[in-house]
């Protein structure tokens, strides 16, 4: 069976900016696949190329064995695309917008009412369908957007940052719905910079950074590659650096501690990488007690996807977000300077 989505050696530049340098991954039919990375990593450009909205410079893209580049009109029938920004005509009702979407997809007229009723029921929009969308909350607008993307019954549903700007309740609603789609056999591709979203939803993940896929696998496989559990330790709420350094020197000599670093951004807390074992916390606390150091707070956890990203790139996703934001601000300032000359 052909992959639901196949992308090989995708490249796309805008002038001298390489938005996508080399992206390759495949998605199996009926799975939720997460494309994880910070803003500016190349996620949106990748899926715009997939959805025929942008022409790549080079590479291979297929949907259910159909070449997106050679047969874009055929590929569009197999794809449902939900953009990050919800664009709705506020004077139309939800049902009228779905009718417009059906006309754009050239759906058979006799099937349109039934299809609209089906997606309205699927997304729980029954009591809102005949209200103007200008009265919808953010969560309802996103649900209507999902309904639009599913109206033509696509093989693959592509969502760009599906829960940005939504409250927690609305996010959970979207997550549950995407899981239902997977159970129905629909393939789902989501881009996100929310670690917990990808971890909770995705069967497999591709981590993208600066236009390149740096790793692919299930969330568990990616975490296992990092190796070891994490222990976060606070000696005091805000420990002096000398005291934190003393604790670090003691703890990194323990046989089950692989790495110990001082995190000054967290009040000189210590972050440890340890061999997974049930008595690690007890061992750390006892070692500190033996030298007269207190324990203000301590917790042990498995590696997170942020640890995976850190191990692969040398920076956290938050660091990457801040770096991207700083780059955008710098470009904006330069444009303003040029405009003022």
| CATH uppermost class of the largest domain | Alpha Beta
Q: If you consult CATH, what is the topology of the largest domain?
A: Rossmann fold
Number of distinct helices: 12
The overall pLDDT average reads 89
Structural class: alpha/beta
Features:
341 residues, alpha/beta, Rossmann fold, Alpha-Beta Plaits, 2 domains, six-stranded mixed β-sheet, four-stranded antiparallel β-sheet, 40% helix, elongated
Structure description:
The protein has helices at residues 43-50, 72-78, 94-104, 112-122, 138-150, 168-184, 195-201, 219-226, 241-251, 280-290, 305-313, 317-340, and strands spanning 5-14, 17-27, 32-36, 58-63, 66-67, 79-82, 156-160, 187-192, 204-209, 212-217, 229-234, 257-263, 269-274, 297-301. It has 341 residues and is α/β, with parallel strands linked by helices. The protein has 2 domains: 5-223, Rossmann fold (3-Layer(aba) Sandwich); 228-302, 2-Layer Sandwich (Alpha-Beta Plaits). The strands form 3 sheets. Strands 6-7-8-3-9-10 form a 6-stranded mixed β-sheet, sandwiched between helices. A 4-stranded antiparallel β-sheet has the order 2-1-4-5, covered by helices on one side. Strands 12-13-11-14 form a 4-stranded antiparallel β-sheet, with helices on one face. The protein starts with a strand and ends with a helix.
């Amino acid at each position: 069976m052909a992959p639901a989505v196949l992308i090989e050696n995708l490249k796309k530049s805008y002038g001298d900016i390489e938005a996508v340098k080399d992206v390759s991954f495949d998605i199996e039919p009926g799975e939720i696949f997460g494309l994880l990375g910070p803003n500016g990593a190349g996620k949106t450009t990748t899926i715009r190329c997939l959805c025929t909205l942008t022409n790549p410079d080079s590479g291979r893209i297929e949907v259910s064995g159909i070449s997106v580049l050679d047969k874009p009109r055929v590929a569009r029938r197999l794809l449902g695309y939900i953009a990050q920004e919800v664009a709705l005509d506020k004077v139309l009702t939800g049902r009228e917008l779905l009718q417009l979407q059906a006309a754009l997809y050239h759906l058979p007229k006799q099937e349109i009412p039934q299809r609209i009723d089906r997606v309205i029921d699927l997304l729980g929009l029954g009591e809102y369908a005949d209200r103007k969308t200008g009265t919808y909350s953010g969560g309802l607008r996103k649900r209507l957007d999902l309904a639009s993307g599913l109206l033509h019954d696509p093989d693959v549903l592509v969502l760009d940052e599906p829960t940005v700007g939504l409250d927690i309740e609305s996010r959970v609603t979207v997550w549950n719905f995407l899981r239902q789609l997977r159970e129905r056999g629909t393939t789902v591709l989501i881009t996100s910079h929310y670690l917990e979203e990808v971890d909770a939803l995705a069967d497999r993940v591709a981590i993208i950074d600066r236009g390149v896929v740096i790793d692919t696998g299930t969330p568990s496989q990616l975490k296992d590659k990092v190796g070891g559990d994490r222990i976060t330790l606070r000696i005091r709420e805000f420990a002096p650096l000398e005291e934190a350094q003393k604790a670090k020197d003691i703890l990194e000599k323990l046989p089950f501690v692989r790495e110990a670093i001082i995190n000054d951004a967290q009040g000189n807390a210590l972050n440890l990488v340890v061999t997974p074992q049930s008595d690690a916390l007890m061992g750390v606390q006892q070692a500190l007690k033996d030298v007269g150091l207190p324990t203000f707070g301590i917790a042990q956890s498995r590696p997170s996807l942020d640890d995976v990203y850190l191990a692969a790139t040398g920076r956290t996703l938050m660091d990457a977000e801040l770096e991207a934001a700083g780059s955008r601000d710098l470009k904006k300032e330069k444009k303003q300077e040029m405009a003022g000359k």
